[in-house]
Amino acid sequence: MNKFNEKISLKSQAAILMIMTALPLTGQAERGGNAPTDKAPSVPGELLVQFLPGTNTAEKGRALGRIHAEVIDKVVPENNRQDGGGELVLIRHQPDFTPAAARRELESDPDVEFVEPNYIYTHQTTSNDTYYTNGSLWGMDSTNSYGSQASMAWENEKFDCGTVYVGIIDEGYMYEHVDLAANAGKNPGEVGIKSGIDISKDGKDNDGNGKIDDVYGWDFDGNNNSVFDGTGDDHGTHVAGTIGGVGGNGKGVAGVCWSVKLLNAKFLGSRGGTTANAIKAVDYFTDLKIRHGINLVATNNSWGGGGYSKALFDAIGRANDANILFVAAAGNSAIDIDATPSYPASYENANIISVASITSTGDRSSFSNYGSTSVDLGAPGSGIVSTVPVKSGRGSVSGYASYSGTSMATPHVTGACALYAASHTGATAADIKSAILTSAYNTPTPSLYGKTVTTGRLDVSNF
Description:
Elements: H1 3-20, E1 42-51, H2 57-65, E2 70-76, E3 88-92, H3 99-107, E4 112-123, E5 126-127, H4 150-155, E6 165-170, E7 193-194, E8 197-198, E9 217-219, H5 234-244, E10 261-266, E11 273-274, H6 275-292, E12 296-301, E13 303-304, H7 310-321, E14 325-329, E15 352-358, E16 377-380, E17 384-392, E18 395-404, H8 406-423, H9 429-441
Parallel strand pairs: 6-10, 6-12, 9-10, 12-14, 14-15, 15-16
Antiparallel strand pairs: 1-3, 1-4, 2-3, 4-11, 4-13, 5-18, 7-8, 17-18
């Protein structure tokens, strides 16, 4: 099949995909799946360009020359892809082209599969006043029937998740927090002693992934290995505590899985995060699992915003191929995302679990998005106490705070994925997702009737 016919075939596939994920907007993009008139925030002057497989350097240069563009990042090099796709690049076009004109010009090139904005994402949290506390973790408690019932699983000695890894795609997290340090996972390719040298600090890319000393993960926003940069990383730290705060240590909080190993791909900075960096973060964990064989079962994605991105959809698909679940916050706009999609929760990848928020009385949280076909289940998300960094004269110290949002509901489900995987050796992503959704089908919740796929809430008591 020549390249022109291949492009027609890809366009036909995209048309089918758009029917599946149609937005209530006109002028939907022919190949990328998102609308050219989409008003979702994106980085000015930047576009993601997906080339067809086999496109050579000269052909790429000719295509980008149509709008006098420069490549500012190779987001997914062709030789790194496991799915047979072409190279995905981030470009900056000249200001004499409007974004719509630049996009139309590139999409008309025979070597380009699709073009889309570099969307900006934000975390899905509504914060209460920060306070120190060792108060009630209703989201874990079995005395509150609307909690996740994690404490009942703990009573049955199901809390040891030490063989399981999860990835936090978010802000950074405070891996030295007193309630997280014991569960801070490390990249096995970047730790150990070789020839008397601690390779975690040797300034080398020991595992060959292009990142130097990425021991705890990688900061894609700052492009360095410093995944914790101070009190601004409170959201990622809060998420981490709900997934895997150390249990049974007489301190602070306990996560759903007491000893799960946490790894971090930081892509949310002070101004949010971009599609390009979200794709890199997803692929980072996929690569880590494939090349190092770690038992990474899920990533937590408490963020959203932007329009439909075929490039991000593809990255989540590559994670699915690697048997990694993608647990996503439904969003905090109090809307029906069946009618008005919210991404990434609204993507139709098989490995996505989309999570709404409920309160301690079983109501759907007033801010929570919902959708009878787009949102899978509810989980505790209002008034959730977890770990945060707190500013002090010495920098950041360990603290605790109560936050609300679908961002807080999502890590309950991610922790549940780890809990199930720990007690069911060899469980596939599909197996784990089925167990999570079955728990919700068996726990009907009136506030979620007609609002979620399962009409129920998370219950890990039988895991």
